[in-house]
Design brief:
Elements: E1 6-19, E2 24-35, E3 46-51, E4 61-70, E5 74-84, H1 93-103, H2 105-114, H3 119-123, H4 127-131, H5 138-150, H6 155-161, H7 168-177, H8 181-190, H9 203-212, H10 220-236, E6 242-243, H11 244-254, H12 260-269, E7 273-278, E8 281-286, H13 287-305, H14 315-326, H15 332-343, E9 346-350, H16 357-370, E10 375-379, H17 382-392, E11 397-398, H18 399-405, E12 414-418, H19 425-434, E13 440-445, H20 458-464, E14 468-471, H21 477-480, H22 483-492, E15 507-509, E16 515-519, H23 526-537, E17 546-550, H24 553-567, E18 575-578, E19 586-589, E20 593-596, E21 619-627, E22 632-638, E23 642-647, E24 654-656, E25 659-661, H25 662-665, E26 670-676, H26 686-693, E27 696-704, H27 706-714, H28 725-730
Parallel strand pairs: 3-5, 9-13, 9-14, 10-11, 10-12, 12-13, 16-27, 17-25, 17-26, 26-27
Antiparallel strand pairs: 1-2, 1-4, 2-3, 4-5, 6-8, 7-8, 15-16, 18-19, 20-21, 20-24, 21-22, 22-23
Helix pairs in contact: 1-2, 7-8, 13-19, 14-16, 15-16, 22-26, 23-24
């Protein structure tokens, strides 16, 4: 037989030989040959099939595959497509019940008992209905729906979408996103750019292929898709609108022969966009962002103007008692701040490190507890929420988690939002909309840190002068002894700290001796020195109290591999290889420090029954790894969250966490921080360096060169974002 020859058969699973997250080897019993001549195994009835497949026992599949010869295992077939010979959509109620039994016998009994005909439940992907079945948790629901979707007939979709370069996995995702294959194909044929709504499919992905297939550069469908992409890119950079002249100029440069008149007529008519008057002229925005900022402003005003439900008479006595207990008095600036925070319904507390924001916040929490009022404390990132818990004593959560646990609204007496500079308008709109009338909202932030990824809200609040802003400026006496504080503030203002030079290499600075510099003339030595510093400090700190920070993922990957070999080398403990065939491969072992890199609301406790979401930035330690041909389950003890079960479907977001990017660290307070700062033109900035240094609470080491430090402090990453929030709060829009 010739290699690479394609055959089509009807067959069933004889035996599963091997299974991993994305690859299986199966022996398939051939019942009927549709096309080609199979190269059977020695038994004369089966073929060996390899690929990413979902095939359950006792069912016949139409399989198209391609012949190949493995250098070690010999003749086999590579999967091209597979589908049930009788698609799941055509099954009778009893056949569907049998199918569920073949997938999960134990859970199928409970489902079939509660829903004798559950076909509609699965067709509608009704997770809530399935969760009502006794003994079924969110992980089981996800698994059942995945198995169901894998057995649907995607053959027509494969034929159409594969011509555009999409993989089978992405085609199935497209179909699921549109709820039906017919609707997905219909929408796609009318306008291929409709696929931009699918996560991971951007304008360029569609546009390159669309241009190849003859769609003109100035086709109205393309122009509209380009504009949506343009405004989304603006939003990622922090701006929610553009002005009319800038957009006209951009269109003329980027789209050949663009009909400006027709385009603006479309913008005026299309619900996705809004063209509106502002004090300085005409603005254009995506309506989604416009409406969000308007919604935020309306709700901030609602909360600020409401009658407070708090009676804070006698707060002075509580503060006086607190000062006596702690053995020192608040400064006049801090007392003024405390009184303002107690007085106003909505207030923003801001200031750099070392001015006592935490001290003021603790005083407010003490008063509220003394009065018996309830408090909800939250932050964007998991690390920031963990830090808020430590400094206030309150059980703090991420904003996502707070919203998830308060489905009918946030009714606590006080809501505290830390690291407000990191929060974007999309999430903040959900938060302020959920807070009940009469609740006090306290926002805390530092505008000198890195900007939010997306359209931020802090600068709009500050610039409007319509909400109470309390600013702390005075560095308290103890903080002046800390080089972590004093040097970070000098970097923040664009200056190299006094006394710092190449000669101060390997010296600890400040009266507290808490900030050290390792400065090299040769940039190539920076990573080598970072490893030396890590090996030195790990003798004095636990791995949970040491964090390497760097601007780029690439540097972090290199340092993670080194750190892992130092603190958790391979001693035969359970492990799992991640992306073994790719350049960025790494190994997770029991005992490793890890970080989660994307929001996941479907993870559970180790029993698999209680949903425990994890979010981008959560860090933890791997406690156990169980892996066999059928499944992979990892239990991670996340900081501030507890033990969480992460299965093979979610492991792709778990990475080694000994070294993380500065952006991932925002909001965290870590005893010992090592900053690896090689030259990086795009990312290095004074805000990044300030943010990195101020993560440290005890010791910090900056590993860089004087040349890189000088170029870093000269550059600011702060953008002049164009947002509507300021004008909405002012009433100018």
């Amino acid at each position: 037989m010739e290699e690479q020859k394609t055959i089509s058969i009807i067959g069933s699973l004889n035996r599963l030989i091997y299974e991993s997250d994305t690859f299986k080897i199966a022996r398939i019993y051939v019942k009927k040959v549709e096309a080609g001549t199979p190269a059977y195994n020695d038994d004369g009835h089966t073929i060996t099939l390899t690929g990413n497949m979902s095939i359950v026992p006792n069912y016949d599949y139409v399989i198209e595959c391609e012949y190949s010869v493995h250098p070690k295992y010999g003749p086999q077939y590579k999967l091209i497509t597979s589908r049930l010979n009788r698609p799941i959509e055509t099954m009778s109620a009893s056949e569907f019940r049998d199918f569920l039994v073949s997938v999960n016998p134990v859970k199928a009994f409970a489902i079939n008992k509660m829903y004798p005909d559950s076909r509609e439940v699965f067709e509608k992907q009704d997770k809530e209905a399935l969760m009502e079945v006794p003994g079924i948790g969110p992980k089981t629901v996800e698994s059942l729906l995945l198995q169901y979707n894998e057995q649907r007939d995607f053959s027509t979709a494969f034929a159409i979408f594969s011509q555009w370069g999409f993989t089978q996995a992405k085609i199935k995702e497209i179909v699921r996103n549109f709820s039906s294959m017919e609707l997905a194909i219909e929408k796609f044929k009318k306008n291929p750019y409709v696929l931009m709504k699918i996560p991971g499919i951007g304008f360029k992905t569609i546009d390159d292929k669309a241009r190849e297939k003859g769609i003109a550069e100035n086709d109205p469908r393309r122009v509209k898709a380009y504009l949506i992409d343009y405004f989304q890119n603006l939003a990622e950079g922090g701006s929610s609108y553009t002005d009319i002249d800038s957009l006209k100029d951009h269109l003329r440069k980027k789209i050949f022969d663009c009909n400006i008149v027709d385009t603006f007529a479309m913008l005026n008519k299309d619900d996705k966009f809004i063209v509106y008057k502002a004090p300085e002229g005409i603005r254009i925005a995506l309506r989604t962002y416009y409406d969000m900022e308007k919604y935020v402003a309306r709700n901030l005003k609602r909360l600020a103007e409401a009658d407070s439900k708090l009676n804070l008479d006698g707060s002075d006595q509580v503060i006086e008692k607190l000062q006596q207990e702690q053995g020192w008095d608040y400064s006049q600036e801090q007392i003024t701040a405390i009184n303002q925070l107690l007085k106003e319904n909505v207030v923003l507390l801001r200031g750099p490190g070392g001015v006592g924001k935490t001290t003021v916040l603790k005083a407010i929490v003490t008063v509220m507890k003394e009065k018996g009022y309830s408090i909800a404390a939250c932050a964007l990132a998991g690390k920031a929420a963990d830090n808020l818990t430590k400094v206030t004593g309150l059980r703090s959560t991420t904003i996502h988690s707070l919203l998830l646990s308060h489905g009918e609204g946030i009714n606590e007496d006080v809501v505290i939002v830390d690291e407000i500079s990191m929060v974007d308008v999309t999430l903040f709109a959900k938060l302020v909309g959920a807070i009940s009338k009469g609740t006090k909202l306290i926002m805390v932030g530092d505008s000198a840190q890195l900007d939010a990824i997306g359209i931020g809200v802090m600068k709009g609040i500050l610039n409007s002068n319509k909400l109470t802003v309390v600013t702390l400026n005075k560095i308290h006496r103890q903080a002046k002894n800390s080089a972590i504080i004093t040097h970070s503030l000098q970097f923040r203002s664009g200056n190299i700290p006094t006394g710092l030079s190449q000669k101060s290499n390997w010296h600890m600075m400040g009266r507290n001796r808490d900030l050290g510099y390792v400065l090299e003339e040769n940039e190539n030595d920076i990573l080598k020195d970072t490893k030396r510093v890590f090996k030195y400090v790990i003798n004095s700190y636990s791995i949970t109290d040491v964090q390497i920070l760097s601007p780029t993922v690439r540097v972090c990957d290199t340092l993670n591999a080194y750190a892992q070999n130092i603190v958790n080398p391979d001693k035969g403990q359970p492990s799992i290889e991640m992306y073994p065939k790719l350049p960025g491969a790494y190994t997770l072992r029991v005992g490793d420090k890890v970080i989660n890199t994307k929001n996941n609301r479907h993870t559970c406790d180790p029993s698999g029954t209680v949903e425990i979401p994890i979010y981008n930035g959560n860090t933890g330690i791997i406690e156990s790894i169980e892996s066999d041909n059928a499944k992979t389950e990892v239990i991670i003890n996340f900081d501030g969250i507890g033990r969480v079960l992460v299965d093979k479907g979610d492991l792709s977001s778990i990475r080694l966490g000994y070294a993380i990017t500065v952006h991932k660290s925002q909001g965290a307070t870590i005893p010992c921080v090592i900053i690896a700062l090689p030259f990086q033109y795009m990312l290095n900035s004074r805000e990044l360096l300030y943010t990195a240094i101020t993560r440290a609470s005890d010791k910090c080491f900056v590993v860089s060169s004087m040349k890189t430090l000088r170029s870093t402090v000269k550059k600011t990453s702060s953008v002049i974002a164009k947002t509507n929030l300021e004008d909405f709060l002012k009433g100018a829009l």
